UniProtKB/TrEMBL annotation:
The chain holds residues 1 to 319 of 893 of the full protein. It comes from Polarella glacialis. Keywords: ATP-binding, Kinase, Nucleotide-binding, Repeat, Serine/threonine-protein kinase, Transferase. Belongs to the protein kinase superfamily. Ser/Thr protein kinase family. CDC5/Polo subfamily. This is Serine/threonine-protein kinase PLK. Residues 41-298 form the Protein kinase domain.
């Protein structure tokens, strides 16, 4: 939940309630705000670019606090679907408050942009982290360290009836302690009740669950479990299980559940068993989050308490 402290910290009025329109908002004096970030924020380094947004580090010059400002050009969200997606992202993300979820502080807009103020995650995402590794993969204890946090985040989200629907390495942000925080709720869905099924086709090709592609019976929380399995495989093996050079073939492989464990990478039998158990076509036969935690992979090895500091300093080069 967005605290009243965080809202008043910005001192900027923002759309209330249902977010039905994202239109120019007026400040407290009733005049329309001039273009750009309010003067008290100093724009810092560029953090990254996504499909819609550009993200910068910004500092509140009064409190000295640092935030990540996700800036979306309104010109890029003129289509009703894109507009609805942005509204939904704000509405779902602002309702969340958990240590393993990127914190949402506030949002506001001017005539040209929507600004989403987020907790800054200074060590990029697990995608960049893995790419910097010489073998482009993680050891099993490292994978377990990150997957454990992801499970904690998913337990929170699913208990709040939120399905993320776009879990992938690039949406697992790294904080200053190299712990993950789940971010980017652009494709998330808020269910009204647990039995509800969603039907929109969404996700990222390599990580998308077969029932989303099938589209017949709708989908629910199990799509996040599937993506967790794809993430675990990718961490240990170094590339996603269904990856091919074209999306159509990737989708076909997902539908027929065609993937293998290459002989060239060492992987424990427990990890193989867990991945095979998660990547089941029938969503009802996938394990729950608690069953994953109780799996022999988690139970036979000791969970590493924290990523050694040397991992972050050696692997994340300053920009
Ligand atoms: P989009 O919704 O357009 O896909 P993203 O949410 O993926 O945008 O953000 C784009 C990029 O900005 C990310 O890939 C990442 O590099 C950076 N970014 C986003 N949020 C944060 C954050 N909270 N802290 C640090 N960097 C971030």
């Amino acid at each position: 939940m967005v605290s009243s402290r965080s809202t008043s910290r910005f001192g900027i009025s923002h759309s209330s309630g249902d977010l039905h329109t994202l239109e120019i908002i007026e400040d407290k004096s009733g005049t329309r705000r001039r273009h750009g970030l309010p003067a008290r924020y100093q724009k810092g380094r560029f953090l990254g670019k996504g499909g819609f947004a550009k993200c910068y580090e910004v500092q509140d010059m009064d409190s000295k606090e640092i935030f990540a400002a996700k800036i979306v050009s309104k010109a890029s969200v003129t289509k009703p679907r894109a507009h609805a997606k942005l509204r939904s992202e704000i509405s779902i993300h602002r309702s969340l408050d958990h240590d393993k979820v990127v914190k949402f502080y506030d949002y506001f807009e001017d005539s040209e942009h929507v600004y989403i103020m987020l907790e800054v995650c200074p060590n990029q995402t697990l995608n960049e982290f893995m790419r910097r590794r010489p073998a482009k993969r993680l050891s099993e204890p490292e994978a377990m360290f990150f997957i454990y946090d992801l499970i904690v985040a998913l337990k929170y989200l699913h208990a709040r009836r939120v399905i993320h629907r776009d879990l992938k390495l690039g949406n697992l942000f790294l904080d200053e302690d190299m712990r993950i925080k789940v971010g980017d709720f652009g494709l998330a869905a808020q269910l009204e009740h647990d039995g509800e099924k969603k039907r929109t086709i969404c996700g990222t090709p390599n990580y998308i669950a077969p029932e989303i592609l099938e589209g017949k019976h709708g989908h629910s929380y199990e799509v996040d479990i599937w993506s967790l399995g794809v993430i675990l495989y990718t961490m240990i093996i170094g590339r996603p299980p269904f990856e091919t050079s074209d999306v159509k073939t990737t989708y076909k492989r997902i539908r027929i559940n065609q993937y293998t464990f290459p002989d060239t990478v060492r992987i424990s039998q427990q990890a193989k068993d867990l991945i095979s158990c998660i990547l089941r076509t029938d969503p009802r036969s996938r394990p729950s989050l608690d069953e994953i935690l109780a799996s022999s992979w988690f139970q036979t090895s000791k969970l590493p308490p924290a990523m050694p500091v040397t991992v972050s300093s050696a692997s994340v080069s300053p920009r």
